[in-house]
Amino acid sequence: MLTAFGVSAFAQEGLIITDGYESVALIPKDKRGPYLTNRFFDNIFIGVGGGVNLYWGENDSYGSFGKRLAPALDFSIGKWITPSVGLRMQYSGLKAFGWTNYQSMYATGEPDSKGMYREKFNTMNIHGDVLWNLSNAIGGYREDRTWSFIPYVGFGGARSFKDGHHKNEFAATAGLLNNIRLGGLVDLTLEIKQLFVNQRFDGVVRGSGFESMTTVTAGLTFKLGRSGFSRPAPIVIPDYAPYKKRIHTLENELAQSQNNAKAMAAELAKAKAQTQQSNEVVKTVTVPTVMAVFFQIGSAELSEKDMINLGNIAETIKKEPNRKFTITGYADSYTGSYQRNMVLSQMRADAVKQALVNKFGVNASQLTTIGKGGVDNYANPSLDRMVKIE
Fold first, then answer.
1. CATH classification for the domain delimited by 284-389, as one of 3.30.1330.60, 3.30.450.40, 2.40.30.60, 3.40.190.10
2. pLDDT for 84-112, tens place per residue?
């Protein structure tokens, strides 16, 4: 009966309806793993249940079915390793009733008219089980699944005892656990299992090599800690194409600015040669109107080419010791914030002043620095990353 209900509930969770044209899944079927390894204290559960035991010994079928039913108690603690595989430790037992045709160690009272004694004893079975959640294994993991169909097998030790007498035997257990979800933390459990022990277990040594006991219980399972399983996040391969395109654009801009700097350096060198050829020109036009140094984006460092240019500028300034010169720094307004560009433009102006004073011996009192921030004076932003000396 439990199997029939479990299969029915499992089928309803994947129910598909059709109107003759298209099919619609009422509840979508989930995918199978892989799943992330859970932590040690994740997916822990404890359970308790009560029901009946039915012992199967040599003469136990003599009595009526109702008088053979004995109370049963289960207590379990376990963990789901994966959505389909779990481990559990369980105590099960309490009482067992039966009949024997002689005065065994668990026989009680006087024999009846047919010489049969009533047999009563206490039982205890502690066993470890391997659980297989068939619903998750076949239908894919669903944390909100209503009915889970879980067969299992286990091994452990069983003990029968009463009035100072006892028997300890190795025991095997096979069973079926049905978990019915009541909420996020509690499940209703319906469990049926069969215990297999040596025939000495009930104190009667006769007949077959082993005996068994059927147990049917109902109870509750409580989930502790974090429950559920997660799949690994899909690997996202970043798209570097926009960054590569931007780098290529910046490289082109840098090359263009370097070409412009070379052209201006050539013009300055030409002007210097012309002043050396004519004393009259040297006296009337000693200093170019504007001298410039260019920088890379986001930088205030001077290149070796710039230092050559500044050396020429320094010689020009030192020839005019009575003149004052203004060093004005700029940044391009296309990149960076307003505050950043103000700081960067001042850093560029200070870098040029320090090079002129410390490396080329220009009198610091002749030089004044100003940072103008981000500007858009030219069509090419690379030309705005400059320092003018006037």
1. 3.30.1330.60
2. 999 999 999 999 998 888 888 888 888 88
CATH of 40-224 given 2.40.160.20, 3.40.50.300, 2.60.200.40, 3.40.50.2020:
2.40.160.20
Q: Are 232 and 34 spatial neighbours (Cβ–Cβ below 8 Å)?
A: yes
Residue of 221, 196, 218 lying closest to 73 (CA atoms)? 218
Rounded Cα distance between 124 and 130, Å, is: 19
Q: Name the one residue in this structure whose structure tokens are 């500007």.
A: 375
Question: Rounded to an integer, what is the distance from CA 303 to the centroid of its chain?
Answer: 48
User: H-helix or E-strand containing 136?
Assistant: helix 134-139
∠ CA 113-116-120, nearest 5°, is 135
Give the tens place of pLDDT for each residue, 22-65.
444 444 445 566 777 778 889 999 999 999 999 998 887 787 88
